[in-house]
Design a protein that fits this description.
Number of helices of chain A: 11
Oligomer: heterodimer
CATH topology of the largest domain in chain A: MetI-like fold
CATH architecture of the largest domain in chain A: Orthogonal Bundle
Radius of gyration of chain A: 23 Å
Helix content of chain A: over 70%
CATH topology of the domain at 65-251 in chain B: MetI-like fold
Largest sheet of chain A: none
Largest interface: A-B, 85 and 83 residues
Radius of gyration of chain B: 23 Å
Number of domains of chain A: 2
CATH architecture of the domain at 65-251 in chain B: Orthogonal Bundle
CATH superfamily of the largest domain in chain A: MetI-like
CATH class of the domain at 65-251 in chain B: Mainly Alpha
Order of helices and strands of chain B: HHHHHHHHHHHH
Strand content of chain B: under 5%
Shape of chain B: globular
Helix content of chain B: over 70%
């Protein structure tokens, strides 16, 4: 066998290694999810979704955790979306290229890489203690909002950048002001991509566990939160709490909780992918 | 009138972008001010050199080394998984795969990064550890190996997607020159493209390391909560992040020195990831200029 044939064989072999590598992670994930569904699907029924927490595994439900997650998601969205989109508009459309703007840029890149536990510590000291929100939904929402702000800013900037300048110039040419141009031309044109980024950021927030534990969300909350100042728990914390118990019945509960959490996460990701796809087909610069 | 409105709006937008600076200042202030009090009571020498971390016990020692070792160990295992797989995937998708395959697999791989980490922790503890115990009977129930392996799977898309972008940014002329000399795709990839895209690949790996260092729930659930100065992945360890969660779950009185340990540990974590993120930022800036 000459070296040319050898190289061909190596080349072919690498192709199969590539196919293997690309699929191995997905295969593992399928195995994982499959085993979880096998463990937990039998536990999911109406009672599981609507029961309050309990010391008895077979009676315990996820109502308070689910309600806490929904509250937290909505409140985080209310805080983070306006701030994130506004910051992105400022950076992309208003700020000039100066030292300050490049500092802002490095800073945002850095914030996106700060571990989530650090945001938890920040929230604990600023929102829980200094501002005296306690371990409430309010403290949780502000903490998570800061955590996902860099993601929203980065994706929104990308979306705004993709709007062709001809659209803006046409708008200015008709006598529109800067804000009118942004409000009526740029934002509608970039809307789909912005929404995609926001949904992905929120789906990250709903799966976060560590920062919410650190600010003091409790594992055991007997009631559904009624207002933003109430104490709360969220689905990932409930799952974590069940995972760490020795009793097997609680591990089954954890698996069932994971199925619900994954269903929500994948649904949000699915919506994001769908939006991106639809917008790409609709707008063709 | 119109002008005033424009001004007000601009001020509002500017304020929003200032929030990001305030966040950074807030993080620095919280970590530094609390750590300062901590280092008033514990010498920084003991913190960095003592080989025991037992702030929650009667006999207190404040050496961060066992937590650093736990973090290093789980990160090392994760990178040992994600680096070879991620780069192989990147080369396959950018040089071998057809466009439809690439467009199908890229979003599918992103799913790996979208799964909440508490779910991965559950996988590691209830699926991977029992499986590995069948092969390695002396494996501890909570161990760095399972946590690291699962974390590696989670960060595959980080390495693969950034590396693929770097490979695809290499000008086609280089590829064509290599093919013209009779190279196979494999030779072109490893002898021409990987060296040409090396800075981008380095960035992807640095960011993956930073992510692995900061990852919390997988290691808290599957690697354990027992500070252990070891480099044996079969043993129970505790990472910096897992320690912070452990303290948050317990009822440590606020303002006590035990409470302040999480700020000192957090500062350590912040410094590590900050250095990695900044190196990768500057490497990235440089390599972007290279091809633009």
């Amino acid at each position: 066998m000459n070296s040319r044939q050898k190289n061909r064989i190596k080349d072919r072999a690498f192709k199969y290694l590539g196919i293997f590598s690309t699929s191995i992670g997905l295969i593992l994930l399928t195995v994982f999810i499959g085993s979880i569904i096998k463990d937990g699907i039998g536990r999911i029924d109406w009672d599981f979704l609507t029961n309050l927490p309990s010391r008895k595994a077979e009676k315990a439900g996820i109502l308070t955790a689910l309600a806490g997650s929904v509250w937290l998601l909505v409140m985080t969205a209310i805080v983070s979306i306006p701030l994130g989109v506004a910051a992105a508009i400022h950076l992309e459309e208003y700020s000039r290229k100066t030292r300050w703007s490049s500092f802002l840029e490095i800073n945002i890149t850095n914030l996106a890489g700060v571990p989530s536990v650090i945001y938890g510590i920040l929230g604990l000291q600023i929102f829980v203690r200094t501002m005296r929100f306690g371990g409430s939904l309010l403290a949780g929402a502000f903490t998570l909002a800061l955590l996902i702000l860099p993601i929203i800013i980065v994706t929104t900037r990308e979306a705004i950048k993709a709007v062709p300048s001809s659209i803006k110039e046409a708008s200015y040419g008709l006598g529109a002001t800067k804000w009118q141009t942004i409000r009526h031309q740029v934002l509608p044109a970039a809307g789909g991509s912005i929404a995609t980024g926001i949904i992905l950021a929120l789906s990250r927030a709903i799966g976060e566990t560590a920062p919410v534990i650190i600010i003091g969300a409790l594992a055991y909350v007997a009631f559904v939160p009624q207002s933003p100042t109430d104490e709360f728990t969220v689905l990932p914390i409930q799952i974590f709490n069940w995972v760490s118990r020795p009793d097997h019945a609680f591990v089954v509960n954890a698996a069932a909780g994971i199925i619900v959490l994954l269903a929500v996460t994948f649904m949000m990701n699915g919506i994001a992918v769908y939006l991106r796809h639809r917008w790409q087909n609709k707008v063709n610069w | 009138m119109m002008k005033t409105k424009e001004r007000i709006i601009e001020a509002g937008l500017k304020f929003s972008s200032l929030i990001t600076v305030l966040t950074t200042l807030g993080i620095l202030w919280v970590l530094l001010s609390q750590s300062l009090v901590f280092f008033g009571e514990v010498s920084i020498i003991e913190f960095l050199t003592s080989r025991e971390w037992t702030p929650l016990f009667e006999n207190k020692h404040y050496g961060i080394l066992p937590l650093l070792a736990g973090t290093a160990l789980t990160t090392f295992v994760a990178i040992a998984v994600a680096l070879p797989l991620g780069i192989t995937i990147a080369i396959y998708l950018s040089e071998y795969a057809s466009a439809p395959i690439r467009n199908t697999f890229k979003p599918l791989l992103e799913i790996l990064a979208a799964v909440p980490t508490v779910v991965y922790g559950f996988f590691a503890l209830t699926v991977v550890t029992p499986f590995l115990k069948g092969i390695l009977p002396e494996l501890a129930t909570f161990n760095a190996l399972s946590a690291g392996l699962v974390m590696g799977v989670m960060i595959i898309p980080m390495v693969s997607s950034l590396s693929e972008d770097a490979l695809r940014a290499v000008p086609n002329s280089l590829r064509e020159a290599a093919y013209g000399m009779g190279s196979t795709r494999l030779q072109t990839a490893f002898r021409v493209l990987v060296p040409a895209a090396s800075s981008g690949i380095v960035v992807s790996v640095l960011l993956a390391i930073s992510r692995a260092i900061g990852e919390t729930m997988i290691v808290t659930i599957a690697a354990g909560q027992q500070p252990n100065l070891t480099f044996n992945p079969m043993e129970t360890v505790e990472t910096i992040t897992a320690y912070i969660v452990q303290v948050s779950l317990g009822d440590v009185p606020h303002g006590s020195i035990e409470y302040r340990t999480i700020f000192a540990a957090g500062l350590m974590l912040f410094v590590l990831t900050f250095i990695l993120n900044n190196i990768s930022y500057f490497v990235k800036k440089r390599y972007q200029q290279q091809y633009e």
